[in-house]
Amino acid sequence: MNKDLTVGNPQKVLWKFCLPLFGSILFQQIYNIADSLIAGKFIGENALAAVGNSYEITLIFIAFAFGCNIGCSVIISQLFGAKKYAEMKTAVKTAMIGSAAMCLVLMAIGTFGSNLLLTLIHTPDNIFSDSQLYLDIYVWGLPFVFFYNISTGIFSALGDSKTPFWFLAISSTANIFVDILFVKTFKMGVAGVAWATFLCQGVSCILALLFVFKRLHKIKTDAKGKLFSLSLFKRIALIAIPSILQQSFISVGNIIIQSIINGFGSSVIAGYSAAIKLNNLVITSFTTLGNGISNYTAQNIGAGKPKRVREGFYAGRKMVWLLCIPLCLLYFFGGKMLIHFFMDQPSKAALRTGIEILRIFSPFYFVVSVKLVADGILRGAGLMKQFMIATFTDLILRVVLAFVLSQTGLGATGIWCAWPIGWTIAMILSVRFYKTEYKNV
Question: According to the model, what pLDDT value does residue 32 have?
Answer without folding.
Answer: 64
